[in-house]
Write a structure and sequence with these properties.
Blueprint: H1 2-23, H2 31-49, H3 54-58, H4 64-70, H5 74-82, H6 92-103, E1 123-125, H7 138-141, E2 143-146, E3 155-158, E4 160-162, H8 172-185, E5 189-190, H9 198-201, E6 207-211, H10 227-234, E7 239-245, E8 256-258, H11 265-271, E9 279-281, H12 291-304, E10 310-314, H13 319-332, E11 338-342, H14 353-358, H15 363-376, E12 384-388, H16 394-402, E13 407-410, H17 412-417, H18 440-443, H19 448-472, E14 486-491, E15 494-497, H20 498-501, H21 509-512, H22 517-525
Parallel strand pairs: 4-13, 5-6, 6-7, 7-10, 10-11, 11-12, 12-13
Antiparallel strand pairs: 1-14, 2-3, 8-9, 14-15
């Protein structure tokens, strides 16, 4: 149906213009219809060939209906947004903010917030009556160095980067646009677990190569991890860091399958699998099965990559499992260079509803668990912490950094920047704007030079907004943020800082046995030999 609609209006108008011209030889009255068909045909041809609007490029003429609806007033548009697949889960203001920043236009909004500031759970940041000057060049000045004592090639990382999305989930045009935008904007692009494709490498943007349970790009024919193939790909100059995907917020503890019909020659080449055959991502890693084996795997990847930063990404489930990993770090004296905390809210990837709604710690709570455990174990200074999970605004980034993150990754915002309209057809191969499809006829809507500029502009403008927020809070750098900068309404009559709600751990508190009972009990029951102890509960 989509394929028939795509160019039907344009073809119809062109045929109509030609036909009525012929009929005019019979009666000149037919020329009146030329006043309709010729202008529409001209508009349609222009839509089909212009590079800036994906909807119009794939849906000439009829695509204008979308923009007409947007111009008919916020009330009608908001109703349609809230009652269509296209609209969930962001309201018009949030979506508009992303598009405006990507397009480089002013993103100010009149008449104040539309949020209920007296609703329980409303959260805001504490500003200062003595603000600081904003840093001169936010993209250059707000950077962090990732790489601990055991790392030979530390990397200077932006505070905002493109989160993991695989080639296969994204089409080649989207991967190209994102990587070129990252190259020009001076930030990093996480590959996703689907392998290191030629489209990731084409434009030279910095990459964080993600290694998932399928070991795509570094696997043997039977799906085992291949040290030789890993070393070969890790040697690429563009690969700046290595990220082991332990679990993801969209579907923690869930594997995946890519049907053979979607395994094209290009995808098979990137993933080192056979084209046309089903590809499975197991629910667990074969390279390790205990926390100590996991730290040994981290050390192995660091050695094979000649000392590049190696870390892992996870969504917190049972805190004891993360405590077991931290105990394994201490026991083996092997530390990751970074940890990325993913929120259980889910990301851009399709997942079973029950997993997105009911499994995994949300980002705020998961981030605080990781921060407190690392501080309590006395190892927080040995690694950096990243955060990912619906990170689309400077305020969300600021809050995450206040709760422990050194940097943030976003997938959703950069999908919007390259033209995603959230039609939620990602898993059908029928994305109408060519972002999450392998169909070349649909991918033509996404023009790489134009969309890469939007990726670059979204990053630049969002980091600039982050710098302005930090300055307004009286701070010089994001590293100065703390729990006390985040305030939440806990009842109609009471507000508290996060420092009051969740008392931060003191360094070494878990080692000293003085942590709060619930966490101390969990720490004492965690073991570096197993991810989850056979006995004991998190709380008594």
């Amino acid at each position: 149906m989509i394929q028939r609609i795509r160019s039907g209006a344009l073809v119809g108008c062109v045929i109509g213009a030609i036909a009525t011209l012929g009929l005019a030889l019979i009666s000149p009255w037919w020329l009146l219809l030329e006043l309709l068909f010729v202008p529409l045909a001209i508009v349609g041809i222009y839509d089909y060939t212009q590079p800036r609007h994906s909807i119009l490029r794939n849906y000439p003429i009829i695509g204008h209906l979308r923009f007409i609806v947007e111009d008919m007033g916020p009330e009608l548009h908001q109703y349609l947004v809230e009652n269509s697949e296209d609209g969930r889960p962001f309201n018009r203001d949030t979506r508009s903010l992303i598009y405006q920043r990507a397009k480089g236009v002013a993103d100010e909004k009149a008449f104040g917030t539309e949020l209920d500031v007296y609703e329980n759970g409303y959260t805001w940041m504490a500003h200062s009556i003595a603000p600081k000057p904003r840093v001169a060049d936010p993209v250059a000045d707000l950077r962090i160095t990732v790489g601990g004592e055991q790392c030979a090639q530390p990397y200077s990382l932006s505070v905002l980067n493109i989160s993991a999305m695989s080639f296969g989930a994204l089409g080649r045009q989207a991967v190209r646009a994102m990587n070129l935008g990252a190259k020009n904007g001076g930030f990093a692009h996480v590959t996703g677990e689907g392998g290191l494709s030629k489209y990731h490498l084409e434009h030279g943007g910095d990459l964080i190569w993600q290694i998932g349970t399928g070991y795509f790009g570094c696997r043997t024919t039977d799906g085992e991890f291949s040290p030789e193939l890993f070393a070969k790909n890790a040697a690429h100059e563009q690969v700046k860091m290595i990220e082991i995907k332990v679990s993801q917020g969209a579907k923690p503890g869930h594997g995946g399958i890519l049907p053979g019909a979607k395994v094209t020659e290009e995808i098979a080449e990137a993933r080192l699998v056979e084209p046309g055959k089903d590809v499975f991502s197991p629910t667990y890693h074969k390279a390790f099965s205990t926390p100590l084996e996991m730290t040994a795997f981290i050390a192995q990847l660091r050695e094979l990559s000649n000392g590049k930063p190696v870390g892992f990404k996870l969504c917190i489930g049972d805190p004891r499992e993360f405590m077991a990993i931290v105990k394994a770090m201490i026991a083996s004296d092997t530390y990751p260079d970074f940890i990325v905390v993913d929120g259980g809210e889910g990301g851009t990837g399709a997942a079973p509803l029950e997993f997105s709604d009911s499994l995994g710690f949300p980002l705020v709570e998961g981030l605080m668990v990781v921060q407190n455990i690392l501080v309590g174990a006395g190892v927080r200074d040995r690694m950096k912490v990243g955060a990912s999970g619906k990170m689309v605004t400077a305020s969300a980034i600021t809050q995450s950094m206040a709760l422990g993150a050194d940097w943030c990754n976003s997938a959703r915002a950069f999908m919007f920047a390259v033209g995603c309209i959230q039609s939620q057809r990602c898993h059908t191969n029928q994305c109408p704007v060519g972002v999450t499809t392998q169909d070349p006829r649909l991918q033509r809507a996404l023009v790489v030079p134009d969309k890469s500029k939007r990726v670059e502009q979204f990053h630049h403008n969002t980091v600039q907004a982050l710098a302005e927020m930090i300055a307004a809070m009286g701070l010089d750098h994001t590293s100065q943020l703390s729990y006390d900068h985040v305030i939440r309404r806990v009842s109609q009559y009471e507000v508290r800082t996060f420092g009051e709600i969740h008392k931060p751990f003191e360094p070494g508190e878990l080692l000293d046995g003085t942590a709060p009972d619930r966490f101390q009990f969990a720490w004492d029951n965690a073991s570096p030999d197993v991810f989850r102890p056979a006995v004991g509960r998190v709380s008594r």
